[in-house]
Request: fold
Amino acid sequence: MKNQIYPCLWFNGQAEAAATFYCSIFKNSSIKVCTPMVVNFELNGNKFMGLNGGPNFKFNEAISIVVDCETQEEIDYYWNKLTEGGEESNCGWLKDKFGMSWQIVPTILGELMTNPAKSQRVMEAFMQMKKFDIETLKNA
Reply:
């Protein structure tokens, strides 16, 4: 038996708009089911549920969606798309126009942070960044 685990995102009547927005950004994405209460969708093959639950709860940074990026072009693409109508934060974090927090992270960051000779300089470099810059991290 396969028990699938996926997040349910609580929206105030904007679940379909959010799912449509996210599906327009990520490849291999689509809306699977859309009802007035629930929208089931996939982003890059990962399942999500959007719930039109009303104004009782709002997103915060306690939960974020991480996007691993191999290249600076990918970082730039996702950063630019997801900050449209949203806001930039520090260290690769942003909030989209629906208030969802995202982390747009270079895949090389883990390797750089586990290098004892570089980790402190890399951390100091990315603490100064909003959107990650791979070359600056490599050169730290």
